Amino acid sequence: MIHTDRLTKRFGTVTAVDGVSLDIPEGEVFGFLGPNGAGKTTTMRMLASLVSMTSGTGEVAGCELGKPADELKLRQRIGVLPENVGLYESLSAYENVAYFGRLHRMDEPTLRQNIERLLRMMDLWEKKDLPTATFSKGMKQKVALARTLVHDPILLFLDEPTANLDPEAAKTVRDVVLDLKRQGRTVFLNTHHLEEAQRICDRVGILRTKLLTVGSVESLRTGASGKHTAVRVDRPSEQLAATVRARLAPRTVELSGDRLVVGVTDPEQENPEIAAAVMAAGGRILEVSQLSQSLEDIYLKLVHEGGAPA
Ligand SMILES: Nc1ncnc2c1ncn2[C@@H]1O[C@H](COP(=O)(O)OP(=O)(O)O)[C@@H](O)[C@H]1O
Ligand SMILES: [Mg+2]
Fold first, then answer.
1. pLDDT tens digit string along 20-39?
2. What is the pTM of this model?
3. What domains appear along the chain, each with residue ranges and CATH number?
């Protein structure tokens, strides 16, 4: 659905996005993470053909970026929810969505059907005739989402869609994203909300001008350092660790606080053997758990050091 090769954007002497190569299959919810100024919005604007790229190539929803003949086709296939949503405040919720549908030259019966379906989904149908000036921030964001979806796009670009929303409105937005996924649509989501990415994205990419890493949250969490089983014991000692290490070779066994940390490949297969080895060495087991880095650990390491997590 999205394929880019060394996508780059410079503003004067500032390189905002540097050589981003991405492959996003149809039906995926892809989370684009990165600190302020990382180039998330600029990347999204290039992918949506709202700003030209300086170099590189890209194909989005079957359209070639930078090819004027593909421009209109791209507009019809994608929906963009920008960072700062501008609604016509004096118009009603219904009229705001209808206006966008007409810009897309939708026929009136389909337009009416879609508006009703979307405003009902957003729980706004009862308020459809009120001017959006009277709406809360969360309600406005839902109108903006309905507007982004009115022409049935197959690919959605959402730029920090839950920023500054209260928890309930943020949940509605996340539910809409999951609903879009169930319908087989592809979602490209800019966020710096790590927990959100973890909850709704199939894969995430971490950007800081350059793309630092891409993968499923699960693979990022275990990938670089591998999996570890931690065995918390009653009386930890280096001697116990050494005995366990000898029994479990060639696995690594390290003493960390009151825990023996064992490098594993398949915890479910290996944990019984590990527990048996600790008991045979005279250890009294209090707890066995899997260690993993949180997405936040990985994110902070990458963004601050620019290197791979240890
Ligand atoms: N229109 C523009 N003109 C000049 N510089 C810009 C423009 N848009 C973005 N930038 C710069 O590009 C960099 C990336 O910005 P942006 O894509 O908005 O990052 P993010 O969305 O990750 O916060 C920043 O340094 C920003 O100042
Ligand atoms: Mg941004």
1. 999 999 999 999 999 889 99
2. 0.82
3. 2-221 (3.40.50.300), 226-291 (3.30.70.100)
